[in-house]
Amino acid sequence: MAIANPIAPPAVSEETLQRPWRFDVFARWPWLKRLVRMRTFQFLAILPNLLLFYLFLIAGLFGTPVGNRNIIIVFVWILWWFVLITVMVPLGSRVWCTMCPLPFFGDWVQRRAVVLVHPGKSPGTENRFFGLHRRWPKQLSNIWLQNLGFLFLATFSALLVTRPIFSAVVFGVLFALATGLALVYRLRTFCNYVCPISGFLSLYAMTSTVELRSVDKNECLKCSSKACIRGSEKGWACPWNVYMGKLDRNNYCGLCFECVKSCPNDNISLFVRPFSTSDVILRGYDEVWKACIMLVLALTYSVMLLGPWGRFKDWANVSEVRNWGGFGLFAAGQALLALVIFPGLYYLSIRLAKWYAKADSIPTKELFLKYAYALVPMGLLAWIAFSVPLLMVNGSYIVSVISDPLGWGMNLFGTAEFPWAPLWPEWVPFIQVPILLAGFYYGFRGMHKVGRQLFSDPAQLYRSLLPPAVLLLAVTLVFLKLFVG
Ligand code: SF4
Ligand code: SF4
Ligand code: SF4
User: Fold this and answer.
1) Which pLDDT score, from 0 to 100, does residue 9 have?
2) DSSP letters spanning 233-301
3) Which of the residues 25, 166, 205, 403 could staple to 415 if both were Cys, CB 3.0 to 4.6 A apart?
């Protein structure tokens, strides 16, 4: 994981030089820039979600234990998940983080302000922060905690998506953790290193069709204030400790827009760009493993929830079936597949790529990291394909639960008795197949783009691409088999 060093001189990376087109949104629609510059902007974006979150907690703790009658399950695990993975991430990068309520109280206790900015001299910033403002340990400054945390929660996904109380407790714990860490550690340490949602948001935000970037990096070279990261009297220091002058990937920008407020040179803008084309470099093993974990989880969820193998579903669903031996097998198998077997297969494909392309001069680690981008669009699109039937089959629960959010027998809008009605289920495979094929296409294309920077000889390039492409194709075929039989 690479969070930019604030002081080091900006380096324009190779991939930045070969950037595809981008369209300056703020230049075209200046009212949007005025909107995000309003000091109230983020608060107003978070407030509705904060209120909803509170309702979800109440529903989880005191509402019906029947999952599909409780708003926390239906809204979070059907509606929110679908919108997040199919719309927000691919089209809006980390726009969910703009409006996420989890760090709200943490920000508040650190800043002692909800809207205003306090100028000051807290270490490394031009703002006044409260709390201990400690640095997070260097050994933990990566996304391994997020990888393991997400895998752990995913192991209990059957509980999470069926038991409202369990979801409420997990979200309550995350909320308390975000606030507690903000009291001890500086800025959004929770978001950067702990939040389990952050890991996959950071990975899949790479594919997104928007980016927040400096307009002119040379301007940043001349800029002495570095207000984008250090803050100013107009905006808080970047909560994610990102320096705009060097930013060339979406991964760790939480789109809070504080830097847009504080940059004295008006040098930051929002750009639209092509899907899955610009940020194509993974920078550490933690990110590669994240890509592997997410792809494997998409696979095991599909087996568990969509496939015909009831036994796996029973193993995962320990709270109802109470088969602890089966659950242990499921948990160990999933962890082994995600942490050892699939990364091992990918490593093998890279060793083969090196051998077949006779690329002795390129370190295995470099090829391993660089070709791993292929797993990013593949993983995102597999998750999208997985989520389509989730909404189409279970979407009608949203209509009924709106009228009776706690399952107490209310009928607020007259839709409480809306029957379960799957929406065109026969169309699901026809939607899933092109999505999966697009995942293969974008994965291969990303690898090809990176490969071109490594190999000048086209024949050598294609030989190097062949083994990981075969792995990618095999993964695509497994998903196709699962989704369409
Ligand atoms: S990183 Fe996690 S807690 Fe932080 S804003 Fe994003 S989703 Fe919310
Ligand atoms: S404050 Fe603005 S001009 Fe200065 S380094 Fe940051 S983005 Fe560049
Ligand atoms: S201050 Fe700017 S760079 Fe930092 S997280 Fe917010 S939007 Fe991203």
Assistant:
1) 40
2) SSSPPPTT---TTT---STT-----HHHHH-TT--EEEEE--TT-S-----SHHHHHHHHHHHHHHHHH
3) 403
- What's at 429, amino acid-wise? P
How many other CB atoms are there within 10 angstroms of residue 347's CB atom?
13
Domain boundaries, the chain: 14-272, 285-484
Q: φ and ψ at 427, to 5 degrees?
A: -85, -10
Atom in ligand 3 nearest the alpha carbon of residue 241: 4
Which atom of ligand 1 is the closest one to the Cα of 100? Answer: 8
Dihedral, CA of residue 317, residue 304, residue 92 and residue 473, to nearest 10: 150
Tell me the percentage of the chain whose pLDDT exceeds 90.
86
Query: Which tens digits make up the pLDDT trace of 288-300?
Result: 999 999 999 999 9
- pLDDT average, residue stretch 153-181: 94
Ligand nearest to the CA of 252: 3
Pocket test for ligand 1, best of 53, 100, 171, 181 (most atoms within 8 A of CB): 100
Separation of 6 CA from ligand 1 center, angstroms?
22
Among protein residues, the one whose CA lies closest to atom 6 of ligand 1? 97
The 8-class DSSP code of residue 63 comes to S
Stretch among 91-95, 263-267, 309-313, 433-437 having the lowest mean pLDDT: 309-313
Centroid of ligand 1 to alpha carbon of 105 (angstroms): 12
> Residue 321: its pLDDT value, please?
67
CA distance 381 to 383: 5
What mean pLDDT value characterizes the chain? 93
Distance CA 69, CA 409 (A): 10
Ligand 3: residues with CB < 6 A are: 212, 238-240, 242, 244, 253-259
Would you say 436 and 479 are in contact if contact means Cβ atoms under 8 Å apart? yes
Q: Which ligand is nearest to the CA of 191?
A: 1
Percentage of residues of the chain with pLDDT beyond 70:
95
Residue nearest to ligand 3 atom 8, measured at CA: 253
Here the tokens at position 174 are 């995350």
Q: How far apart are CA 176 and CA 359, in angstroms?
A: 50
